[in-house]
Design a protein that fits this description.
Blueprint (H helix, E strand, L loop, with lengths): L6 E2 L14 H12 L5 H22 L10 H11 L4 H18 L2 E3 L2 E3 L6 H23 L13 E2 L2 H9 L3 H19 L10 H20 L5 H10 L11 H9 L6 H12 L3 H13 L3 H14 L3 H10 L3 H17 L3 H16 L5 H11 L8 H14 L10 H8 L6 H6 L1 H7 L3 H21 L13 H10 L3 H7 L2 H7 L14 H19 L1
C-alpha cells in the first residue's frame, strides 16, 4: 500500500461554514481535499459519499415523504421530483455521482478486471469546485449561511515537501508526478521572466531543471498516465532539451493514446497553432471540445462568436459540460433574442438563463443582469440610487465578461449618464463603434464623447491638463453632425459649436483658452528671442 501525504489548506478552511450543524458533511468534504493530490480515486469516493449525505440532509430539511432512499441515482431523482432543489444542484450531483461510481467499482478491459481509476488534476479541480458550490447551497438552505461570505474553492497545500519526496521514493507515482508538476510550474514561471523582473541566476535555473528532469523521469518509469503530456509540455516550452527519439510531437502523440478528457488534444492543438499548423491544430482543439475539455470549449465559443459560426451549438455543449462562461454566453444570446423580438416567451427564457448563470457564478453575468434591470425593467427601477448602483456593477464586472461577447455598446450607453466613467468610455469607444447597428448610432457614440470631453476640458482648465479623446474633438463633432445626428447638428450651428470646430480653446489635448498672465509671459519670451537673433 502506498504512503499517503496529508494536506492542510493553509490559506483557509474551505468548508468551515459546515462545521456547526453539518459536521458529517464537513468531514467528508475535508477528506476529499486530503486525497486531492495523491489519491484522486479515494478523493472521488469521498465526494460520492458527500453527495449522498447531502441528499439525505436536504430531504430531511424539506421533510420529503417518503424519505430519500435507494441507490444514489434514485435519491437524486427524488430530490428533483420534489421541485424543492434548484436544477443546477441536481445537475452537479449527477455529474459527481457518475465519476464517484467509477471510483468504487471495477472495470473490465479485455477480460481483465481493473480497480484503478485515472482522473486528471483538471477534472479533480472541477469536481472539488462543484463540491464547494453544493456545500454552499446546502449551507445556505439548511443553516441559513450568507453567500456573500464565500469565495471560490482554493486548492489545499501540502504540509511539507519532504513528505512527497519520501512517498515518491517509496513508490508513489502520484507523489513523483506532483513533484514533477511543481518543478515544471516553477521553471515555466522562471523562463517567462526577463530584464529587471528576472530574479534568478543561471545556476538556480539549472538546479530547478535537474529537479524537473529527475522527478518526471521517475514518474514516467512508475508508469504515471500523464507523464507523456508533461514531457510534451516541457519540450514545447523549451524547459528540457529534446532527445533524438523523444520530442514534443512524439510525446503529444503518445499522450493522446490515454487522453480521456481532451486535455492532451487541446495542448497538442495549441502547440500546432503556435507552429503554424493551423488546420490540424484546430482539428485537435475541436476534438478536445467535443470531449468536454473546458479550455477547448472556451476556444470554440470564442471562434463561433467572432466568426458568426454555430454559436448555439457550442453554448449547448458548454452548458452540458458545465463550463461557467457558457452560461454567460447563453444569457447573452437570450438577451439578443429578446431585444430582437420582445415577447413574454423570450423574456421568460432570458430570466431563466440569468438565474442559471447567476447560480453558477458565471463570469460577467452581473453586467448582463444589471443591464437587464436598467433596460428591460426600467419602469421598476426609477430610484436614481438603484440605477447608479446597477451602472457601477456593470463597470466593476466588465473585465470578467468573456472577450467575445459584444457588450461594449450596451455598457457605453449606460455609463454615459455619469462623467466619472469617462476613462472607461474612451477605453471601449472603438468596440462600441464597431457594434453600432447603423451610422446614426455611431454618430450618437461620437457626439456623446464630445459632450463629456468638453465638460472634462472645462474641469481641467485651471490645471492646464489634457483630455484624452479617440480623435480630435472637432473631428468627432463634425463626423456626428455629417451623419445626421440632430443634437450634433444643432450644436454645430451654435456659437459655442462653431468655436469648437475652429479649434478655438478646445482640442483633443484638452488645452483651453490661455489666460492673460500666460499671454504676457509668452509675449516676453518672443521679444527676448528676437533680441537674441539681432545680436
Amino acid at each position: 500500500m502506498q504512503a499517503q501525504t496529508h494536506f492542510e489548506n493553509e490559506n483557509k478552511d474551505n468548508f468551515a461554514f459546515l462545521k456547526d450543524g453539518l459536521g458529517e458533511l464537513y468531514k467528508q468534504a475535508v477528506l476529499a481535499e486530503r486525497y486531492y493530490f495523491t489519491d484522486p480515486q479515494s478523493s472521488m469516493a469521498k465526494i460520492r459519499l458527500f453527495v449522498e449525505l447531502a441528499c439525505h440532509e436536504l430531504g430531511k430539511h424539506f421533510k420529503l415523504r417518503p424519505p430519500v432512499h435507494g441507490d444514489l441515482s434514485n435519491k437524486i431523482k427524488m430530490l428533483q421530483a420534489s421541485n424543492c432543489i434548484e436544477e443546477w444542484v441536481i445537475g452537479e450531483m449527477n455529474a459527481l455521482r457518475h465519476d464517484g461510481n467509477r471510483s468504487v467499482h471495477m472495470t473490465e478491459v479485455n477480460g481483465a478486471y481493473i480497480a484503478e481509476m485515472k482522473v486528471s488534476r483538471t477534472r479533480m479541480k472541477q469536481h472539488m469546485s462543484s463540491v464547494f458550490e453544493i456545500a454552499k447551497y446546502v449551507g445556505q438552505t439548511i443553516l441559513g449561511n450568507s453567500q456573500k461570505n464565500y469565495d471560490a474553492w482554493q486548492e489545499p497545500t501540502p504540509c511539507k515537501l519532504s513528505s512527497f519526496v519520501t512517498d515518491a521514493l517509496n513508490g508513489s507515482k502520484e507523489a513523483s508526478y506532483y513533484l514533477a508538476s511543481k518543478f515544471y510550474s516553477e521553471l515555466l514561471e522562471m523562463s517567462e521572466q526577463a530584464g529587471k523582473s528576472r530574479w534568478w541566476h543561471k545556476e538556480q535555473y539549472l538546479d530547478k531543471q535537474a529537479d524537473l528532469s529527475y522527478w518526471l523521469e521517475k514518474a514516467h518509469r512508475q508508469d504515471h498516465s500523464q507523464s507523456w503530456l508533461l514531457f510534451a509540455k516541457c519540450y514545447a516550452n523549451k524547459l528540457l532539451q529534446e532527445e533524438a527519439t523523444r520530442n514534443a510531437k512524439t510525446c503529444f502523440k503518445l499522450a493522446l493514446k490515454v487522453d480521456e478528457e481532451g486535455e492532451v488534444a487541446f495542448e497538442f492543438g495549441s502547440y500546432l497553432l503556435k507552429h503554424e499548423e493551423t488546420k490540424l491544430g484546430e482539428e485537435y482543439i475541436r476534438q478536445a471540445a467535443e470531449q468536454g475539455y473546458h479550455q477547448a470549449l472556451s476556444f470554440e465559443l470564442d471562434v463561433a462568436f467572432r466568426s458568426g459560426g454555430d454559436k448555439e451549438s457550442w453554448v449547448e455543449r458548454g452548458i452540458e459540460y458545465r463550463l461557467p462562461e457558457a452560461f454567460t454566453a447563453d444569457a447573452f444570446l437570450k438577451l439578443e433574442a429578446y431585444e430582437f423580438e420582445p415577447t413574454e416567451e423570450s423574456l421568460k427564457a432570458l430570466r431563466s438563463a440569468l438565474v442559471a448563470a447567476q447560480s453558477r457564478r458565471a463570469p460577467g453575468i452581473a453586467l448582463l443582469k444589471s443591464y437587464v434591470d436598467l433596460t428591460v425593467y426600467a419602469e421598476q427601477q426609477r430610484d436614481k440610487a438603484a440605477q447608479n448602483q446597477s451602472i457601477q456593477i456593470m463597470v466593476d464586472s466588465y473585465e470578467s465578461v468573456p472577450d467575445y461577447l459584444d457588450v461594449e455598446l450596451r455598457l457605453f450607453n449606460q455609463i454615459t449618464q455619469n462623467d466619472k466613467h469617462y476613462d472607461l468610455m474612451i477605453e471601449i469607444y472603438h468596440q462600441a463603434i464597431l457594434q453600432a447597428n447603423d451610422e446614426l448610432e455611431e454618430a450618437n457614440v461620437k457626439y456623446t464623447v464630445v459632450k463629456h470631453a468638453l465638460i472634462k476640458a472645462g474641469e481641467k482648465f485651471k490645471m492646464r491638463d489634457g483630455v484624452k479623446t479617440p480623435k480630435p474633438i472637432p473631428t468627432l463633432l463634425q463626423e456626428a453632425a455629417d451623419a445626421g445626428h440632430s443634437e450634433a447638428r444643432a450644436y454645430v450651428n451654435s456659437a459655442e459649436g462653431k468655436a469648437v470646430l475652429k479649434s478655438i480653446g478646445f482640442t483633443n489635448q484638452g488645452k483651453m483658452q490661455k489666460n492673460a498672465a500666460e499671454k504676457v509671459k509668452n509675449k516676453r519670451k518672443r521679444k527676448l528671442a528676437k533680441k537674441a537673433k539681432r545680436k
